[in-house]
Amino acid sequence: MAEDEDWRLFVEEWSRKEGREITGRTPLTGDASNRRYFRVFFRGAKRPHSAILMEREGTLGFKKSEEAVSKASLDPPGDPFLLVADAFGRRGLPVPAIYHRLEDGSKTLQEDFGD
């Protein structure tokens, strides 16, 4: 499947249920990880009118780099972003709502807090 179709199908799983139509996608400045970020725009009566799409490429960098030094046989239990967001949210700290995600954390569609 082409990369352009892949992100669109993922976002449409959520947007169709919410009665929204995708109108565009703009790349955002990334961080020093293997994640890419995009602002996805929607048309529809309900809010939000945009959301942040995070796509993780390949394996988690920390897992790959720690394999050489760690004696642990088990990987951490899930995606670090989702684990930290959950921990912060349970403590009442503001974190973006996760609208849609793949179980392995390789794609998430989350609340857009703005620039």
Number of strands: 5
Main pleated sheet: 5 strands, antiparallel
Beta content comes to 25-35%
Distance between the ends: 31 Å
Q: SS-based structural class?
A: alpha+beta
Organism: mine drainage metagenome
Protein name: Aminoglycoside phosphotransferase
Keywords: Transferase
GO molecular function: transferase activity
Can you describe what's shown?
This is Aminoglycoside phosphotransferase. GO terms for molecular function: transferase activity. It comes from mine drainage metagenome. Keywords: Transferase. With 115 residues, the protein is an alpha+beta fold. The chain has one domain. The protein has three helices and five strands. Strand 4 and strand 5 form a beta hairpin. The longest helix is centred in the N-terminal third of the chain and has 13 residues. The chain is globular, with a radius of gyration of 16 Å. The mean pLDDT is 83.
